[in-house]
Amino acid sequence: MSLSRIRFCLNTVFTLWLREMLRYKRSRSRIIGSLATPLFFLVIMGSALGSSMTLRSGRYIDYMAPGIIGMSILFASLMGGISIIWDREFGFLKEILVAPVDRFYTALGKAAGGVTTAMIQGTSLMIISGFIGIEYVSIWRELLCIPIMFMMGLGFIGLGITLASRIESHEGFQMMMTFITLPTIMTSTAFYPMEDLPGWLSIPVHLNPLTYGVEALRWMLLDISDVPITLSLMVITAFALTMMGIGSWAFDRAGDQ
Description:
The chain is mainly alpha-helical. The protein is 80% helix and 0% strand. It has one domain. Helix 3 crosses helix 10, helix 6 crosses helix 7 and helix 6 (103-131) packs across helix 11 (229-256).
């Protein structure tokens, strides 16, 4: 591939990324809602359950904070897929699919926008949580959470692109999102530790990629984890690469239909 061709492909990725960022910036209600809802969960649910739950690792609200960040990244990344449905309905998707560029770069540009949005929300929640009293280990550990959020977002945006490439309506996408997000959150360690889980529940918890993303964040922020950090990083990296591969394939197939 020539240098001019590489520049053209990268310019396509940047243009689609910038379009997603402008769309996010203009949607103030989305920004407020994406931060207010997780904070409501953290403050109300964390305080209520913290008064009745005792963890050997410390306060429950501290334990819950990485789970809330992971939950926010999951929602934001999957929601990134809905822009594909919007573009399909308004005809924009057809225009970019006929452009003389590999569809992989088109999918990459959409994914980059969704991942950036998820990282903005996750990082904002991490900072705000620190101001309201969540006790983190150090500022350096907080910075190391950013690449973890990136890999988590990449995996779930790949899933969102896969779903949006196969589903043609907003209603169908929203139903599928609900079907996926609630079981994914509840069968992870976002709200409770792995220890003392029932045998039947420990299986989906160990198979859930969100578990390993939350545990990696928890190790970085609180220096506690039920999973070795190396295993968590390996799982979320493999998940991100796999889902982006599947997502780009599904996006390419959708363009041929």
